[in-house]
Request: fold
Amino acid sequence: ADLAIVDPPYVRREEWDEVPAAVAAAKARHPGLGVLLWYPIKAFTRPHQLQHAIRRAGLAATALDLVSTPVELRKNALAGSGLLLVDPPAGLVDALITAAAVLGPALATRPPSWELRATSWGAV
Reply:
């Protein structure tokens, strides 16, 4: 299966709306396409909006958020990274969760504090 890796710059606020629309359009044109979408975490508002847009588009997905610094301590600076996976290859989500268990403690700016959030909808 094909996997598109998407790493938008998120320079403009509108990209948070444009990116999920582009993912939905790509999936409509290529139903078998897997998508791995990266997004920054400075706060959870925009990542949650992105996830809800993917859900509203009717796409099954898994979101993995690795937070290396408590969001409330960063004040608009990068606190972590998220990956949204739509129809990923078998085993990829498990492999990323395993990797996060190693990366989390290594990247934690306030050891031992780090967090992995995993949310899945419509995915098996």
Remarks:
- The mean pLDDT is 94.
- Helices lie at 15-29, 45-56, 71-74, 92-107.
